Each structure stands twice: as C-alpha cells, then as structure tokens.
Amino acid sequence: MIGYLEGQVKYARTGKIILYTNGIGFTVQLPSNLVFLEGQKVTLYIHTHLREDDLSLYGFQSPADLDIFELLLTVSGVGPKIALAMLASSTEEKIKSAISESNLAFFSSISGVGKKTAQKIILDLKSKIGKGDVNMASLEGNSELIDSLVSLGFQKGEISSIYSQVDSSLPLGPQIKSALKLLRK
Predict the structure, then answer these.
(1) If both were cysteines, with which of 1, 95, 138, 173 could 102 make a disulfide (CB 3.0 to 4.6 Å apart)?
(2) 3-state helix, strand, coil in the chain (%, to 5)
C-alpha cells in the first residue's frame, strides 16, 4: 500500500491532483479545502483505498488528518467521499471535539451525512478517541428506549454500543426486544 508521496503537481483542480513522483503520475483525491498549484512541490500522507473495481489514493498534509480520515472509514455507512467532505469542512481537532461532545448537529450539517449516520459516527468513535461517555441526550434519539434500558439496569456505555443497531422506526416494544437481544450477545 502507498502511504506517503512527494513530488511535483502536474495537474491540479479542486479535490484532485496528479502528483509526478519518480516518473509516475499518481492521481490523488484531496479534501476540497486543500489547494495546490501546478508545478508546486508537495508531500502527502496517503490512504490507499482498494475496492474490487477501484484503486484510489487520498492525500493529506498531516498524519493527524490521515488518522482521522481512516478512523471515520471504520464507521459503517461512511465512505471516502463523506470522510473527505468532513475534513474539507472542518479540522481534525474539531471533528474529534464534535465526537467527544456528542455534537449531532456538527455531523448532520455535512453534505451526505444524515441523522442516523451522525449518530453512528458518535457512537462508534466515542470510545476510540477516548473522550468519556456518550452524551445520550444530545443524540436526539429515542429517549424512551434509552430510559427503558437504563431502568432495566443497563449502563449507558452498554446502550451506546448497540444503540445504532436498533431500528428506531419500530414501536417501543420491539425496539426494546431488539436492544435486549443485542445486549445479550
């Protein structure tokens, strides 16, 4: 896998460059707020994204940006385009802060991120960035489900680990049954 490239920009447009390195031109996708000029010497930290029909390179100026990009990709429903949009609209520190503060509005404001995906990002990444407990109230989810599970003796940390897997379109009873099955695993 390619992890780092440095070379000269041969072609540049918003969100994409061709980086000429040792006789090879690499097409690298970038956050749209990262702008380079043709002829400019550039160093980038690279994420190599491989799918069965595509090999894409995503470039970042710092290892911290690369790390948060790769962390965002671990969330089901978040692909490279959404992760790039997050980094284009914010910084690595602000993204981590939004996760630690359970700031649903921050993620929902990003193009391509709905309420469920925003909840999933917070719930899945909260423990990975190590910034305390999930603020369940700020997730604007089904507080009846959360209250019911807490009254049954479950801790909020346990609930946060399965919360995104429960279908919130179901009535409360089936939601509780589904949550209990997930908590028993």
Answers:
(1) 138
(2) 45, 20, 30
**pLDDT averaged over every residue in the chain:** 84
Identify whether the C-beta of residue 57 lies closer than 8 Å to the C-beta of residue 21.
Answer: no
CATH number at residue 34: 2.40.50.140
Q: Rg (Cα) of the chain, in Å, rounded?
A: 20
Q: Are residues 67 and 26 in the same domain?
A: no
CATH number at residue 103: 1.10.150.20
Contact 93, 115 (CB under 8 A): no
- Predicted model pTM: 0.69
Hey, what long-range contacts does 89-92 have (CB within 8 A, 24 or more apart)? 89/33, 92/62, 92/64, 92/65, 92/67, 92/68
Q: What is the pLDDT of residues 121-151, one digit of tens each?
A: 888 888 787 655 445 444 545 567 777 777 7
